[in-house]
Structures are given as structure tokens and as C-alpha cells.
Amino acid sequence: MIRSDLPAVKLADLPGGPEPLVLCATARLATGLRRAHGELQAARGAVTWQALQSSTPAMWLEHLTSSALLRGEIPPAGVPGSFLARPQERSLWEQAVAADAGAAAELFDREGMARAAMEAASLQRTWRIEVPEALHTEEYRAFLRWREAVAKACREGAWRTADDVMAWRLDCVERGIGGLPARLGIAGFIAPDPLVSRLLVVLEARGVELFRLDFGRDDTAPVIGVELPDAEAECVAAATWARDRLARDASARVRIAVADLPARRRLLESALENCLHADAVGAGWAALERDYAFAAGSPLAAEPLVDVALRLPQLQAHSQRVAQAEFGALLCGPGWSADVDEADARARIEAALRERLPPETSLERLLRAALREADVLRAPRLAAHLAALLDAVRSAPRRQLPSAWGRAFAGLLDALGWPGQRRLLAVERAACDELREGIGGLLALDAILGRVDGGEALRQLQRHCRDQAFAAARRAPVRVEICSLADALAGPVDALWVMGLNEGAWPPPARPNPLLPAELQRRAGIPAARADSLAAEAQSLQVLWRESAGEAVFSWAQREGERPLRPSPLLADIARRAWPSPSAAAAVGEEGVGDEIIERVDDARAPPVGAGERIRGGTALLAAQAVCPAWAFYQYRLGAAVLPAPTFGLDARARGSLLHAALEEFWRDRGLADLTQMDEPARGAEIRRVVEHALAGFDREAVEPLPPRLRQLEGERLQALLAVWLEVEARRAPFRVVACEERHALDIEGLPVRVVIDRVDELEDGRLAVIDYKSGRNVSAASWAEPRIGEPQLPIYAALAFPDRAVAAVALARVTRDDPAFLGVAESDGLLPGVKPLDGLRKQYAEGEFPDWARLRRLWAERITELAREVRDGVAAVVFEDEAAIEYCEVRPLLRVAERKNQFDEAGEP
């Protein structure tokens, strides 16, 4: 601890006002001491009082020298150049790193390396580390080059870094500027700091009386140690403890300090929400000011509207390669354009783009496609905003000053309707205002960066928003504050819970700067480089934590996943207490929860199909009903579906459509005789014609034509596929195609079913053969003999679509290059190659059940009618014969198969 020899003064004994001044290790401690001092004055009955003067050394020195400048004690000529802010200095280091790396700069973490180099330069200067040439590594030599480049830039620009400014201000105090307090206290300084030590020596030499502020409480209780199963259990226990503490004393101030706050933030926030605001569920409660708050706030970039504002200019800055997922997320999300009035249209546009464009493409191509869809779906405001974005992309200059880019970004956001139509909450307005300030702050980088491209300017803005902590102003004081261990010492509180104190996390491991020799850092006494120094600091902090809280709880976890954990060795002397399990703790205060009030609902039946209800799906609806009734209900009655995934080139569905179109064109008004009369050149020419016809039709429907090379490859694939398949067709008995892609509207038990029959052939004797094309290898007609027909398309055609015609064969046409074939069943032999008659398939079609062809068609009609009756009556149970049958079910998550398995496992049922 710095200057432990100084006399201690209790916080309660300080009078307040300009004297004395208290210098604090952190700004949070300075704020906390002012608050605590004010509470003490109010408790004594004071109506008004002067606030305690508390500050960090850097802030106080800045105020002191600024006042001296105003009084004329420091002449303007005595100010050593322009002072660089931290972002400006960091940009200088980044430029030095990038220039040194040359063309390979993009392969490095420039920001991380610049941050490490800034820290190394500061440590080397503050702790006076000299590195002998024998210890110069490649990394250190690179650091020297970067340091020299930064120093040269500072000389040329007459700039001064933060370390230069701090040293100058200390010199001003040493030279005798006025405004020093008669008494000065220090608080919270645990780790040694050469600059603070020098400041105290200078102040003492100038006659300032120094003391050490003791802000501990007189009513502290022994600290409690608690071991819990894991991090989630720690968060739940701490949140429950905070709730109970506030229930006992509504005016209590509670603090929760977390060892690894970024990793546990969501867990802790969820636990606090459940314990302190269990009823605040839904968007209507978003404006409610919570009883808890994170002391350091959250990154400005994490605010939803700020995130949108940063992603919109990124489309412009990186317009040559845009991920459709990124653009789609913006389309479906709020915060810009007509996000309320045109929300449905925007979602439909995003779904359409998934089917029409690849996963990555140019912004101009994306915008052209989106504009076309916006016109069809009547989204005029979105269309206007997308047109503005397209104009901005086309007119943007290649390079300009950061401030000019800032104006361009601000103009673009206005042109795109940011931040949307909805009335903003107070916290959202504050976040938008801070973003606008950050955009204006790009002006400070003009002299540092010069003319840059839009991507670099946006990167600087994004980094500013990541680094900028955001916390909206509050109307009421925070009752439960959450902070990191570094901020846990922030003045007295009534109750303190410190979590995550496991071995390896507490005390924190040594982390010497990677650019300086670690041994020299340890010799110099840099605390972060020495494990013993960190352990001593941790012990001192534990003492201060205990003394500053009325009650304190230290906790740790038993495990992380499957890895067992141990408590920190620094907790060996702390008394341990058993803590209720998280589930039991979470239930504290709940009454009357028991089996008697649990209502069990059988949800296996949905509402019957209503009059006028439109049901889509056709034969796919009945197929899903046969496999799993809940599948049919969710996907075809409720409309749940998986959005199509964008693909490069053509997906399987598009290739299947092209095949259907080519075969339809080939067989229109033709038969076997037409095929066999073609010689090889004529057949090849006809195949090329129908393939070109199919591709031309695809191009007419697409957002833009296929690229020439892809079109050529797809044409060659289709030509080869048709050549192979037509060889199979040529081996058939005589037939004539009487229908291609024929549409039928059927009524099955009052259920309207629209079907499209790929092809109907008329045989020599006038009977029909019904054919359905399949371009995949996994094709089967096995379910046609089952009570629940999982592939009902062809049985529907055979049994219901042609009630007055003699259907002699039904078959799936597997159109593949390696194994083309017909698969199905026929009334007699020889009608289709490879398709056996009913009497030849008795292992599959039992004679007792399917004695003849007429009975087969009647059974198909009965079973399909029964499926339609189930749909009509609302049968929607999660029932299936084989889990493999629902492997490709689009709504499988809604079936909750895994959860049901867990229920069976817990109940010990098969």
C-alpha cells in the first residue's frame, strides 16, 4: 500500500468543502466517497453541506494546471505543444505498426499490438526500464521502431502524449504553481505507482499535510465464505441474497463484484431480473428502471440502435463483398427506414433474397434485387431508402478526411431513416446522442490520419463505440450495483458479495507486457509482472472489502463444466457456510406452489379446420400427416417453416425445377415413336433445345441471369442427364404423353388439395401410367403398402385424380446419371422397365390385404381419405414410427423430441 506510514483519518471526521482534498485510486472510489460523506452529513441532521472534494491524481492535476493557466501562473508559451487524447495517441501507434508491417499489416492484430506497444512505452518511462542490447529480441526491436516512428510524428506535429503531459504537470507542481490544498488525503492506493509516489513527495516538500483516508465501517460483520456448484449457481445465489437483503432494509446499498464479469454478465443479469423484477416480462416493461445496474455500464456499440447505425455504413464501406446474412439481419431488424409500417414486407423481401442470391455478393446486386422485391411487395419507404443507399455507394469518394467521413456517415443515417419510426426510450435517445458525439469526434483524427478510405474511418468509429462505456442517466439511486473486482473498492456499502474467487482467478495471474523482457519488469517492481505483488495486493484488497461493507460474502465455484475448481488460497482463513441450493433459494418467497395447482393439458388435438380456412401444402400436407400429425399441423396449418439457406450457384430445388422444365418441353405432345424415330444427332439437338428452353425460363424468373460459366456447366449437366434418362424411356412399351405438369384440384373429406402431376402417359390399350420425376437418389415407394402412406403423391393421383380412368401403373422416375430407373407398381408386367406387377410384389403387398389392382386403388383412397379426415378434425399429436422419418422435418424443433426423450429418461420409461 502506498505510504502506509501516513496517519489515518476516518471519513466521518472530514468536514467537507474545498479542504481537505482526497485523491483516490479510481474515479468510482472518488464518486463513492462523495456519496458516503454526504450520507454521513445528512445522518447528522445537516440540511446543506459542501461536498467532499475527491478526485483521481490525473483529473486533479489537469484541473490544477488549467487553473494556473487561467490565473497566468503558467504562460501560454510554457505549454509544451498540443496534448493528444488517448484515441489519437493509439492511432499514431497503429499507424507505426501498420507502416512497419507493410503489405502484411492486415494479417496482424494492429489494435492489439498498438495497445501493447503503448503500454510498453508507458511502463518503460514510468518505471525507468533500460533494456541492454543483449536482451533485444525481434519483438523488442520492432517495438523500438514503432516507438521512434511515434516520437518522430509527435515532434513533427508538436504533439504530446499522455505520459508527457503527466510529467509536465508534475513539473509545474514542483516548480511552485499555486492552488495546492493545505491538507490532502489518499484513498484506495494498493499497488505501487511511481508517479503517485513522486506526486506525494513533491506535495510534502511544498508543505501539504498528507493523511490516509480510512473509509471503513464500524459495524462490519465477519466475512462468510460460500462454495457453490458452478458460475450459474453463484449468480443465482448472489441475486437471491441481494433480493433478501433489500427485503430486510429497502434503503440498503448492495454491491456484487465479479471476478470475470464479461463472461458472467448475462448469467448474473438474468438471475437479478428473475429475483428483482420477476413480473417485468415483455416489451412493455422495457422502459422500467431496474433496481440493479452495472457500474461500468456497457459498451456503446452493444446498444441495439448504435449497432444498427454502425452496420449501415459498413454496407457502403465494404460494398464489393456483402454477406447476405448481414444485409438480411438489417432488413428484418428495427432501427431504420419504415421499421414498423413495412416490417412484414421487409421480412418477405429478406426471405425472397435467400432464394435468389448467393450467400455473398456485391451490395449493388443485393440492392437491385431488394428494390425489385420492394416494388412487388409495396414497400415504398424502404425502396426510397435503398435507392439512397445505392446512390451513396456510387457517389462516395475513395479517400477523404475522417471528419468528412463522419459527415457522410451522419448524412447516410439520416437518408436511411435511422433510428426508425418508433418513439425512442430515454436510454435509446441517450445512446443515439452519444453516437452522434462519437461521429463528430472523428474530427480529432484529421491531423493524425490524414485522408483515409471509408473502411478505416468506420473502423475508428466502431472502436470508439466499443471502448466507450455507456450508462444512461437514472431517476432513482441504484440499489444493487454490479462491478468487476477492480471496481469493488468504491466506498462503503451495506452489503458486498464477491464471486468467482477461485484459484487461478484470484489473485489474478501475472501478465507482464509481451514487448519488454519479463525479468526486467519483475526487477523494476511492476505489480502486473510479479505474482507475489499481485497476491499481496489481493490480500490488502480483501481487508479493505471487509472493512468497507457491513456484511460480506466471498464465493467460489466447485467446477466449470466437467473441470473441478478449487477456492483461492487467500480464502483459507475465512469461515465457510453452507448455502441453500440455487433451486431452493430461487423459490424463497413463493407460496402455494404445489402439484394441486398444476393444470395438465392434452395438446394432441388442434382446432378442427374451420369453414373458409385456407390450408396450403397439397400432397405434402398429407405426407407430413402420415409421418407425424404435429408436423403437418405446425408447417401447413400454422405456416411454420425453415427459411431457405442462400447457396452459391444452384441449389437442389432449382436444379430439380430445371430438370422438370426440360422434360416437360421434351415430351409435350410426343410419345415413344417420336423418341425412337430420332437418330443420335437429332436427339442431341433436341436435348440441347429443351435444356436451353429450361434455362431461358429460369433466367426470366430470376433476379438476374445465371453467370455464363455456371449456365454453361448446368446446361452440360442437364444434357448428359437427359441423354441417360431417354435411353431408359426408349426401352418402354409404346406410349403417348397426354399430360405434363397437369394441375388438379381435389376435395378429400372437405379438404381442398391441389396437385400437380408431372406426367401422364397413355398406353396402347388406353390405360394410363402416372409418373412423378425425382432427381435424388434416396427415392422409395415402400410406404405405399403401409397403413399410413408417407409418400402419398402418386397414390393420390392413381386413386383420386382419375376416378373414371383405368390407371395401370404408378411409378417414381429416378432421373440420375448413375442409377436411372422406374420405381413403383403396375397392374401387369411389361408396362414400365423394372416395375413389377402387383402379383410380383407380394412380400410388400400382402395378398390378403391387396388381392387385386382394384382393391389396391380402393385401399389407397381409403387411407388417404383417413389422413385428410385427421387433418380436418385437428389430429396433431407428436407421434411417429421411426425417428429417422422426421430427420428432415423443417419444424422438428417444435416437436420437442429431445425434451420428450429427457422426460422419458427421468421417468425411467422406454
Beta strand %: 5-15%
Q: Enumerate the spans where pLDDT stays under 50 for 5 or more consecutive residues.
A: 584-595
What characterizes the major β-sheet?
Answer: 7 strands, parallel
Helix content: 40-55%
**C-alpha end-to-end distance:** 65 Å
Tally of helical segments? 31
Helix-and-strand structural type: alpha/beta
The count of β-strands is 25
Shape: elongated
Mean pLDDT: 91
| Strand line-up in the sheet with most strands | 10-15-9-16-17-8-20
Radius of gyration of CA atoms, rounded to a whole number: 38 Å
Written account of the structure:
With 910 residues, this protein is α/β, with parallel strands linked by helices. It contains 31 helices and 25 strands. The strands form seven sheets. Strands 10-15-9-16-17-8-20 form a seven-stranded parallel β-sheet. Helix 3 (86-101) packs across helix 4 (110-126), helix 24 packs across helix 26 and helix 26 crosses helix 27. The protein is elongated, with a radius of gyration of 38 Å. The relative contact order is 0.08. Residues 584-595 have low confidence and may be disordered.
